[in-house]
Design brief:
The chain is of the alpha+beta class and 993 residues long. Among the domains are: 90 residues, Alpha-Beta Plaits; 114 residues, paz domain (Beta Complex); 126 residues, Rossmann fold (3-Layer(aba) Sandwich), CATH 3.40.50; 243 residues, Ribonuclease H-like superfamily/Ribonuclease H (Nucleotidyltransferase, domain 5), CATH 3.30.420.10. The chain is 25% helix and 23% strand. The radius of gyration is 31 Å and the shape is globular. An eleven-stranded mixed sheet has the order 35-34-33-36-37-41-40-39-23-1-38, sandwiched between helices. Strands 2, 9, 10, 11, 12, 13 and 22 form a seven-stranded antiparallel sheet that branches. Strands 3, 4, 5, 6, 7 and 8 form a six-stranded antiparallel sheet that branches. Belongs to the argonaute family. Ago subfamily.
Length: 993
C-alpha cells in the first residue's frame, strides 16, 4: 500500500479565493503531439480501453537474453532517442557511451557468473579506517548474479546535459524581505522589465537568494527597483488609484561553473574517491523545478494541482490533492529524474467558522448557536487546530495574508483596541462603524495575528487560504480516504506518471531545460532485475521439525497443518474487557475457548483457565491512570506476582491504550495483547491465528526459522560457532505541529544464533527532532551484555541496519554512530568486531513496474500485478559508485509495491552483492507476526515498533504539552523527559511486537 507524501515544509500558493490551482495536466497529449509519424507503442504495452503512446527510448536498449536465464522476452533493440522539442545538435551531451551502458544484460549475467569466484577473492580492502577519514563504502563487484532475470521499468527518466554548458550563479537580495510567493512575482517582473540587463536570459530562481542563468548578465552587479500591487505598512505609492509596493533588487555574480566534474563522476573517471559535484547538480535540479513551481502548489519536493483529478473532501476540514514528486539523481546510467505520483492533504479553503465545525466535533452545529462560548479546554483545542494557518479577510478587498498566532484571552464582545489617535474602541463597534457589519459570534475569541502586538481579527470574517498543507495528525477515516486516492495498481500508476512527465505542469512543460541544454527522456528507464529464490523454512510438527518452501506467487505460507517453530506455555494469564455491549461481553467465554484451541493447533499452550474470572470494566477506566494500575496489580497478585499475559478486549480504539502499555510494561511487568470487540464477532480463524502468533512472540516463542542456517548459506562470513548480531536502529519524531516533545530512539539486536530471530530492545528519549542517536553507545553496550548472557560469547560480526536516514545525513550519521558502536565494543577488552553499517530507506519514490511484453502469455500472468517478492535491482538506477540496491521482498496486495532501498555506508565484513542481498531477503522471512515475507528487514522493522512503543510511553504527557496556551514569544523546548524504565523480565521479551 502506498504511503502519502510527507513533508514538513510549508506549501506554496495562497490565493484569495478558493479557486482551482493553476496548471492542468493533459494525459492525452504530449509535447510532440503534432508529430504523429514518430509515435509507436513501446514494448507492446496495451490496455482494453486505450493504448499508451510513448516516445522512443533515450538510449539503445539491451540485446536479447538467452531463454534459460530470462523470464520475459527481451526489449526491442536499437531504438534511438529523438526529440523535436529539445536540442538536436549537441555533441557534448554527457551520458555513458553505448559500450559503457550499465544495463543488466545477459552477457553480463554470464560474465558475472564466470567471474563470481574471482569477485569473492578480490574484494577491495578499504584504505580509510580512521574515524577522521570516513568514506562511504564502494560497490564491491559489478553486481549480483543470483536469481532469474526479469524485465522491468523504473520511474527514472534519463537527463542528458552538456558538460561544457556554463551556469552562472547569482546572489539576489530583495529589500524589504518578501515571502517566497512575492519573491517569485518579483523575479517574473524582473525578467519582463529588465530583459536587456539580463542579456535576454530566462534565469531560474530557487525562491530564496539564488538565481541561475545559462548566460552571463551584462554586469556582475545589478541594482533595480520592482513595483508590485501589494499593500503594506511601508514604502507605499499611489499610482492610478492602486497602492503599490517598491522592492529594491540587488544581484551580484557569485560563481560560474560547468558540468565537467559531474560528467567525470557519472562516468567514473579520475579519482575514485571524488565527491559528487553538488553545485552543478543542485543548479540542474532548480532548472527542472522552475516550471512546476510556477504552476503548482509546492510542498517539500512535491507539486500539487487541482487539475490532476480535482480535490477530494476527506473530512475534518481537509481536502486531498493529487500531485507528483520529482528529484534529480545520479545513477549508473547517468543523471535521472525520479518522478512519482503523490497525494497529500491540505486545509480546505473555507471560512474559519465552517472549518472549525468540520474539524472539531464539539463545535458541530455552532452556526445555529451563535451565542455559544468556549470552555478553557475547548479553547486550547481550537487554538491548536488554527495555529500557524494563513487566512485572508472577506470584509474588505485586499491581497494581504495573515498567519494565526493564537487566540485572544477575551471574547470578541469584550475586546477593545487603541486607534492611532489613542482612542479606545470596542471591536464590535469598530466593525459596525467602518464596515457596517454586525459581528455574530461575540462569545468566541478573535484571532491574534501578531506575536509582538495586539492585532485582532474576528473568526467569522476570515477565510482559510488555499494550498496550505495539512500538518496535523490525520484521523483514521482521513488516512483511509487519502490512502485510497493514492492506491493505484502498477499499470494505472505507470500511466499517471507517464502523463505527468509529458503533461502541462510536469518537469518538461517549460522552456528552461532547453535554455540550459538539458534533454529529458519521456520514457521510463528499462532495466533488468533478478528474482531471488525463497529460503526453505523450518516449522514445528508436534515436536518434530518440518521444512517448507514458500512456493505460492506471493510467497505466503499457512500453518493449517503445522506448528510454530517454538511454541510457549502460558500457564498464568488474565482477560480484561473495556466497554462493550451485553451481547459482546457474553461472547468472551466462547472467545477464550476458541483462542485456546487455535493456540493448541499452532503448538502453543494457553491455559483454558484464567487466574481470575474475566474482568469487565467500563471504557472510561482507560481515562483513569491510578484506577487502571490498581486493576492490573490485582491481576498480578492473583497470579502470585507471576502473571505472563493480559489480553485486553476493547470496545473501540482509545487513547488510554498508551497508559495501559506503559503501566503494564514499566510498573507491573506483564505483557499485554489488545484486540477489539468487532474483530471477536467475526469468528475468523485467521484473526485467532494472528493473535496467537503475536502472543507467542511476546512471551518468548518464535514462529519460523530458516531451515538452512545462515552459516550454511554464507559460509565465507558466518560460522556456527561464531555468532553474529543483527542490529536495527530507528528514531521516531513527534508530528510536525509539536514543537517541544522529545524524539524517541530504539535499538534492537538478536540474542540467539544461528536462528537469529529473537530480539531484545532498548529505548531512549532524546532532544526534540534530533536524528543522531544520542545514547547509542550505552544502548548497544546493554544489548551486547544481553547477547553475552545468552550465548556466553560476544558476536564476531555486527551488521547494523539504520532506518530513517535521509541522503543528506549519511556522512554525519555514519561518522557519529559508527564511532558510538566502536565505543560500545571497547567496553570489552580487545573486542573489535568488523562492522557493516546499512541505511534502510523506505520513504523514497523509486517504483519498479513489470515490463508487459505479451499480456496473453501464461508466463506473464502476474505482469498486471506487482513485481514478485525477491525482486532485486543493483544496476542502472543505483548509485554510480556506492554499494546500494533495491529489494522488494514482499507481495504488494494493494497499490504499487515500494521496494526498500538498502545503502551500505560502511562494510568491514566485505560482503559481496549476492551475499548481502540473500541475507536481507532471507531475514525478511523470519518476522514473528506473520506467515509471509515482510517488506522491511526485520531488525529495522522491530526497531521501528520499539521506537513507536517508546513514543506511546510519552504520549499522555505530550498531549498536555501540545495543548498549552500559546505565548506571544515562543518558549524554549523543555528538558527532554526520560522514558520510564522497563521491568527486568519485560526487557528480555519482544513485548513491542
Amino acid at each position: 500500500m502506498e504511503e502519502t507524501e510527507e513533508s514538513n515544509n510549508r506549501s506554496k500558493k495562497c490565493n484569495s479565493k478558493p479557486t482551482s490551482v493553476k496548471g492542468c495536466v493533459n494525459y492525452n497529449n504530449n509535447n510532440n503531439a503534432h508529430n504523429n509519424s514518430n509515435r509507436y507503442i513501446a514494448f507492446g504495452f496495451r490496455s482494453n480501453q486505450n493504448q499508451y503512446q510513448t516516445y522512443p527510448a533515450l538510449l539503445p536498449l539491451p540485446p536479447a537474453i538467452p531463454m534459460q536465464v530470462a523470464v520475459a522476452p527481451p526489449f526491442p533493440q536499437n531504438h534511438n532517442f529523438t526529440s523535436t522539442t529539445l536540442l538536436q545538435n549537441q555533441p557534448f551531451l554527457a551520458t555513458p557511451s553505448d559500450s559503457k551502458l550499465r544495463y543488466f544484460t545477459a552477457s553480463k549475467v554470464l560474465q558475472r557468473q564466470n567471474d563470481v569466484s574471482k569477485q569473492k577473492d578480490l574484494l577491495r580492502v578499504k584504505t580509510a579506517t580512521t574515524p577522521e577519514s570516513f568514506v562511504v563504502a564502494r560497490r564491491p563487484d559489478s553486481g549480483g548474479v543470483e536469481g532469474q532475470v526479469i524485465s522491468l521499468l523504473a520511474n527514472h527518466f534519463l537527463v542528458k546535459f552538456d558538460p561544457l554548458q556554463k551556469i552562472f550563479h547569482y546572489d539576489v537580495e530583495i529589500s524589504p524581505h518578501p515571502s517566497k510567493e512575492v519573491a517569485r512575482l518579483i523575479k517574473q517582473k524582473l525578467v519582463e522589465e529588465h530583459s536587456l540587463v539580463l542579456s535576454g536570459a530566462l534565469p531560474v530562481f530557487d525562491g530564496g537568494r539564488t538565481i541561475y542563468s545559462p548566460i552571463e548578465f551584462q554586469n556582475n552587479k545589478i541594482e533595480c527597483y520592482i513595483s508590485l500591487p501589494i499593500p503594506s505598512s511601508g514604502n507605499k505609492l499611489q499610482i492610478e488609484g492602486q497602492q503599490i509596493k517598491l522592492f529594491r533588487v540587488n544581484i551580484k555574480l557569485i560563481s560560474k561553473f560547468d558540468g565537467k566534474e559531474l560528467s567525470s563522476f557519472l562516468n567514473k573517471e579520475g579519482d575514485g574517491w571524488s565527491p559528487l559535484p553538488q553545485e552543478y547538480l543542485h543548479a540542474l535540479d532548480v532548472v527542472l523545478r522552475e516550471s512546476p513551481t510556477d504552476k503548482c502548489i509546492t510542498a517539500g519536493r512535491s507539486f500539487y494541482s487541482s487539475c490532476m483529478g480535482g480535490e477530494k473532501d476527506i473530512g475534518g476540514g481537509a481536502v486531498a490533492l493529487r500531485g507528483f514528486f520529482q528529484s534529480l539523481r545520479p545513477t549508473q546510467q547517468g543523471l535521472a529524474l525520479n518522478v512519482d505520483f503523490s497525494v497529500t492533504a491540505f486545509h480546505e479553503s473555507i471560512g474559519v467558522i465552517p472549518y472549525l465545525e468540520k474539524r472539531l466535533d464539539f463545535l458541530r452545529g455552532i452556526s445555529q448557536r451563535k451565542t455559544r462560548g468556549l470552555t478553557n479546554e475547548e479553547k486550547k483545542e481550537v487554538e491548536k487546530a488554527l495555529k500557524n494557518i494563513r487566512v485572508f479577510v472577506c470584509h474588505r478587498e485586499t491581497v494581504q495574508r495573515y498567519r494565526i498566532c493564537s487566540l485572544t484571552e477575551e471574547v470578541t464582545e469584550n475586546l477593545c483596541f487603541q486607534d492611532r489617535d489613542g482612542k479606545i474602541l470596542r471591536i464590535v463597534n469598530y466593525f459596525k462603524d467602518h464596515y457596517n457589519y454586525d459581528i455574530q459570534y461575540r462569545n468566541l475569541p478573535c484571532l491574534q495575528i501578531s506575536r509582538s502586538k495586539p492585532c485582532y481579527l474576528p473568526m467569522e470574517l476570515c477565510m482559510i487560504c488555499e494550498g496550505q498543507k495539512f500538518l496535523g495528525k490525520l484521523s483514521d477515516d482521513q488516512t483511509a480516504r487519502i490512502l485510497k486516492m493514492g492506491c493505484q495498481r502498477p499499470r494505472e500508476r505507470k500511466a499517471i506518471i507517464d502523463g505527468i512527465v509529458t503533461g502541462s505542469v510536469g518537469p518538461t512543460s517549460g522552456n528552461h531545460a532547453r535554455d540550459f541544454k538539458l534533454q529529458i527522456s519521456r520514457e521510463m528507464t528499462p532495466l533488468y532485475g533478478r528474482i531471488l529464490q525463497p529460503p526453505k523454512l523450518k516449522l514445528g510438527d508436534r515436536g518434530l521439525v518440518r521444512d517448507l518452501i514458500p512456493s505460492r506467487h506471493d510467497r505466503q505460507w499457512n500453518l493449517l497443518d503445522s506448528h510454530v517453530f517454538e511454541g510457549t506455555r502460558i500457564e498464568r494469564w488474565a482477560l480484561m474487557s473495556f466497554g462493550g455491549t451485553s451481547d459482546q461481553k457474553s461472547n468472551i467465554p466462547k472467545f477464550i475457548n476458541q483462542l485456546c484451541q487455535r493456540c493448541e493447533q499452532l503448538g502453543i499452550f494457553l491455559n483454558k483457565n484464567t487466574v481470575l474470572n474475566p474482568q469487565f470494566e467500563p471504557m472510561n477506566l482507560l481515562n483513569n491512570v491510578k484506577h487502571l494500575e490498581t486493576k492490573l496489580k490485582k491481576l498480578q497478585r492473583a497470579s502470585f506476582s507471576n502473571l505472563q499475559l493480559v489480553i485486553c478486549v476493547m470496545e473501540k480504539k482509545h487513547k488510554g491504550y498508551a497508559d495501559l502499555k506503559r503501566i503494564a510494561e514499566t510498573n507491573i511487568g506483564v505483557v499485554t495483547q489488545c484486540c477489539l470487540y468487532p474483530n471477536l464477532g467475526k469468528h475468523s480463524s485467521q484473526f485467532l491465528a494472528n493473535l496467537a502468533l503475536k502472543i507467542n512472540a511476546k512471551v518468548g516463542g518464535c514462529t519460523v526459522a530458516l531451515y538452512n542456517s545462515l552459516p550454511s548459506q554464507i559460509p565465507r562470513l558466518f560460522k556456527h560457532d561464531g555468532p553474529v548480531i543483527f542490529m536495527g536502529a530507528d528514531v521516531t519524531h513527534p508530528h510536525p505541529l509539536d514543537d517541544s516533545s522529545p524524539s524517541v530512539a530504539a535499538i534492537v539486536g538478536n540474542v540467539n544464533w544461528p536462528a537469529a530471530n529473537k530480539y531484545v530492545s532498548r529505548m531512549r528519549s532524546q532532544t526534540h527532532r534530533q536524528e543522531i542517536i544520542q545514547d547509542l553507545s550505552t544502548m548497544i553496550g546493554e544489548i551486547l551484555d544481553d547477547f553475552y548472557e545468552e550465548l556466553l560469547k560476544l558476536p564476531e560480526r555486527i551488521i547494523f541496519f539504520r532506518d530513517g536516514v535521509s541522503e543528506t545525513q549519511f556522512l554525519k550519521v555514519l561518522k557519529e554512530e559508527l564511532q558510538a558502536i566502536r565505543v560500545a565494543c571497547s567496553r570489552f577488552p580487545g573486542y573489535k568486531p568488523p562492522i557493516t553499517f546499512v541505511v534502510v530507506q523506505k520513504r523514497h519514490h523509486t517504483r519498479l513496474f513489470p515490463c508487459e511484453l505479451d499480456p496473453s502469455s501464461t508466463r506473464n500472468q502476474f505482469f498486471n500485478e506487482n513485481i514478485p517478492p525477491g525482486t532485486v535491482v543493483d544496476s542502472v538506477i543505483t548509485h554510480p559508485r556506492e554499494f546500494d540496491f533495491y529489494l522488494c521482498s514482499h507481495w504488494g496486495v494493494k497499490g504499487t509495491s515500494r521496494p526498500i532501498h538498502y545503502h551500505v555506508l560502511w562494510d568491514e565484513n566485505q560482503f559481496t552483492s549476492d551475499e548481502l542481498q540473500k541475507l536481507v531477503y532471507n531475514l525478511c522471512y523470519t518476522f514473528v507476526r506473520c506467515t509471509k515475507p515482510i517488506s522491511l528487514v526485520p531488525p529495522a522493522y522491530y526497531a521501528h515498533l520499539a521506537a513507536y512503543r517508546g513514543r506511546l510511553y510519552l504520549e499522555r504527557s505530550d498531549s498536555a504539552t501540545l495543548t498549552r496556551s500559546s505565548n506571544i514569544s515562543r518558549p524554549a523546548p523543555p528538558k527532554t523527559t526520560p522514558l520510564p524504565k522497563l521491568t527486568e523480565n519485560i526487557k528480555k521479551l519482544m513485548f513491542y511486537c
